[in-house]
Amino acid sequence: MDQKFLINGGKKLKGEINISGAKNAVLKLMAAALLLDDACEIHNVPELADVQIMVEVLRSLGAKVDYDTDEKKIIIDATTLTSVEACYELVSKMRASFTVLGALLGRCKEAKVALPGGCSIGERRIDFHIKGLEALGAQIKIEGGYVIAKAKKLVGTTVYLDRPSVGATENIMIAAILAEGSTIISNAAQEPEIVDLANFLNALGGDVTGAGTSEIIINGVKQKDLHPTIYTTIPDRIEAGTYIAAIVATRGKGIIRNIFPSHLSAVISKLTDMGANINILDPFSIEISCGKIINAVNIVTQPHPGFPTDLQSPFMSVLAVAEGISVITESIYENRFRQIGELTRMGANVQQEGNRAIVKGVKSLTGAQVRASDLRAGASLLVAALCAEGTTEITDLYHIDRGYEKVMEKLSGLGADIQRVNITENDINAKLIADEIHVI
Ligand code: EPU
User: Fold this and answer.
1) Predicted local distance difference test score (pLDDT) of residue 136
2) Predicted TM-score (pTM) of this structure
3) Most exposed: 91, 104, 343, 405, by fewest CB within 10 Å?
4) How far is CA 150 from its chain centroid?
5) Pocket of ligand 1 (CB under 6 A)
């Protein structure tokens, strides 16, 4: 049954929070596990709708997958694969499943993977993925909505990416593990999730160096060199950044545990400019607090180590209640300001001018009925609702559930007044009316 959040805002968040494993890392580790003709084990796996979809994708290819949500671990046994086709029904539910392309091509030298298509936040092309895999020797055609790739063998080469695409870097890196010779990815993505994938591939017996810099070198190994491993996923820096935004927006105080503070350097720097106090307590925890005044700051989203696009929307909610005017420039996606309309309904003063949002801070937001249009827009509404006066209802929670494990429990633990309730007949009628208004 569809559900919604009811949030009574205006309470300062206080307490401690434990961050889960990184969604955008674990999904790629799961795909990479297809390279091994044996079983491997991944720990610190968050319980998320997207992980469940990846489980289904791997099973559809013939892998045996045991996903233990209590133990937060997953065992993937890809000894026998029965298919090289990832179907549209699954890939269209979650773009990250497109990463099985590189793994299937590397292991089986053929793959048929549905094109993920655009999504609500942008066009999200895959041309760099294709260019990179072709450079390794794959013949690729696009037919009937599928990428069909075949190779007699893959041979290492240098691939330059026009943009440091996370997904393309990952697909090429995975495919190159079992290629002959060395592959260099130049202008590679440098996100912590890329480093995690490289560490996982090395733990499986691969030979990857340079991850975390703009040049990654993959020295091909033989299938027999790969071996089982037990690997622990990195913490989710975007989940951490979202809770930090919520604490700051409510002028609260909290300790964020199980994180790597260095993954959040750009965010911590902006928080300092905003007037928040940040204390690195130990290598895995930070303490954050914020007084009455939040300073306006300008933010430009950029590939890592720049400010992450995935935190742009939650931070817009913080800046909506800051002192003064902030300018947010979104440079990664064409359409990642979908929260603006809903924030405006809560009293925010935000004007969009192309890829810039001019945020004029207001004294406070007020509760309203709002809908999450995508995962991070949903996170932005959560932050806004927590600091708003009155009650906010957030619907279309499935977006938020894709990326935030036990979000209600974690926020309640910080003292938030938040409930998850079933959608009523009245809500459905109101949604139908709202949909009609959107269509008109
Ligand atoms: N791009 C191309 N051609 C390509 C690939 C990408 O033009 O072949 C463009 C995209 O259209 C986009 C930009 O490059 O405008 C960045 O795309 P990138 O490939 O770096 O992103 P991604 O791999 O599709 C991952 C995360 C996103 C996160 C981005 C950027 C996963 C599953 N997704 O996407 O996370 O925003 O990197 O850091 O890892 C989220 O978690 O909410 C989310 C969207």
Assistant:
1) 98
2) 0.96
3) 405
4) 29
5) 24, 27, 95-96, 122-129, 163, 165-168, 189, 191, 309-310, 332-333, 375-376, 403
